[in-house]
Amino acid sequence: MENQAAGDSGPTERTILEMRRLIAALSPAVLEQLGLGAALRQLINRFQRLHPCRIKLQLSKMGVLPQQIEVIAYRLVQECFNNIGKHAGASVVNISLATADGVLKLVVEDNGIGFNVPEALAKRESFGLSGMRERVALLGGTFQVESRTEGTKTGTKISIELPISKVERRVLEHQVVKNINRKKVGHKQYGEDSNHAGG
User: Which domains, and CATH codes, for the chain?
Assistant: First the structure.
């Protein structure tokens, strides 16, 4: 049981640590002062300088979101752009971001060349589709990919749903577990030092 628990916590702990790194890496001025919408528009402008294409951003009923949700949404869009820039050759990208019934819904759709979805998901690179799917699953969300490589309408559509309260709860739970583990390590080290001192 202990081995199983340790195995289960590994990927989740890595995800939480990665989220903390992402939060630290993203300039607070962009999200805290300007908000997610402005941060995404800045990201779009940067992408368009490297990959000229038409991008439509639709934000619906966003309201005030927790910082970790904004960072996750930002990074997911960023990773979609990375994939589009490297592989898709798209001329049009549509991004839709909305909240409804406590769920953040993100849809990124392009008219690129498309790809074989099972093959792409089978690749185990740290970033990319498989990494995105794993992160979303660990945060209690759903991840769907549709892609067409033939016919008159080629392209890719990525649909993600994240339950906001569940993401907050999981982040908080793992922060608590991490703090408890840190205290246990500290007590153990203190005990060892005390024994040495007493001996």
Answer: 2-184 (3.30.565.10)
